[in-house]
Amino acid sequence: MSTATAEDLFHWSDDFNVNIQEVDEQHKVLVDLLNQLHHAIREHRGKAASRVILDQLADYTRTHFLLEESLMRVLHYPGLEIHKQQHEDLIKQIHDLQHKLDYENVTITFELLHFLKNWLIHHINESDKRFGQFFAKSQNLQQYQTWNKEVEQTMTKKKWWWKFW
C-alpha cells in the first residue's frame, strides 16, 4: 500500500474499522487503490494509466466482495442478500464505466471519484459495520475459524496473486 499524503482523496481512520481483520485490511487496500486513481487523474497521467488502476480497483473490489459474502454465508448472516445486492449494483456501475471508457470516449472525473469514495464510506459505515456487529455476537465463530484457516491456505497457495496488490 502507498503511504498516505495530504493530497489523498480518502484518508483512512480506525473509525472505519468493522473489527474483522480480513475485511478491514481489504478496505484499506480499496482506499489505497482509490487514492492511486485520484493521484493519476490529478497528475494527468492519461486515460490508459487511469484505466489500469480502475481495472485493479474493480478486480480487487470483486475479490473483496466475494470474501465478505463468503463469510456472511458461513455465519448465516440474515442481511446477506441485501448486502450482496449492494455489491452487485456497484460492480455493475463500475462495469458500465469501464465500457464507457472503452467505447464512448468518457474520462474518469473527480465527480466519479467522489461518488466511489462516498459509496465506500457509506457502505462501510452502514452495511459492513452492521455485519461487524453481527460477527462480534455470532454463535458461529467456530465455523469462522475453520473458514479463516481455509482462506489462509488458499491465499498462501495463490500468494503471487494476493500479494500483487
**Portion in beta strands:** under 5%
Number of helical runs? Answer: 6
Please mark out the parts with pLDDT under 50 across 5 or more consecutive residues, or reply none.
158-165
Order of helices and strands: HHHHHH
What does this structure look like?
It is a single chain. By secondary structure, the protein is an all-alpha fold. The chain has one domain (20-162): Four Helix Bundle (Hemerythrin (Met), subunit A) (Up-down Bundle). The chain is built from six helices and no strands. Helix 1 runs antiparallel to helix 2, helix 1 (21-42) packs antiparallel against helix 4 (110-137) and helix 2 (47-74) packs antiparallel against helix 3 (80-103). The longest helix is centred in the middle third of the chain and has 28 residues, at 47-74. The chain is globular and about 50 Å long. It comes from Fluviicoccus keumensis. Belongs to the hemerythrin family. GO terms for molecular function: metal ion binding; oxygen carrier activity. InterPro entries: Haemerythrin_Fe_BS, Hemerythrin, Hemerythrin-like, Hemerythrin-like_sf, Hemerythrin_metal-bd. This is Hemerythrin.
